[in-house]
Write the structure tokens for this entry.
Amino acid sequence: MNPLKVNDIAPKFSLPDQDGEKINLSDYQGQRVLIYFYPKAMTPGCTVQACGLRDNMGELKKAGVEVLGISTDKPEKLSRFTEKELLNFTLLSDEDHQVAQQFGVWGEKTFMGKTYDGIHRTSFLIDATGKVEKVFNNFKTTNHHDIVLSYLQQQ
């Protein structure tokens, strides 16, 4: 696994959102975007992380940041997740994990003694020119939004 680093150009991608609509990273050109990769919708940790972003969306918008969450879940599951948790940002379906691989966050994981391939929980702040401005990979699901907001407030 080799995640993108600061100043790398974010890979262009097109993925279906929770409503099955195609979303392109280029749709956000000229804006800052927080792309956060998470393992699985509707699991406890991923729900806590998503709700933290939801509850702080006002602050993120004030900082001029859009949010895109990416997992390997199907659009139908993302739609249920969005409705159940009243999420106010876009979730994208990367079923074949191609985008996760391009960002370098797909790789071997171990959970309860089992080894498998999956998404590593990592977030990338992409600047208005399409470059990686900041990589967030040292956080808990409960404080992800605080770490991101703290960084944004220092800018």
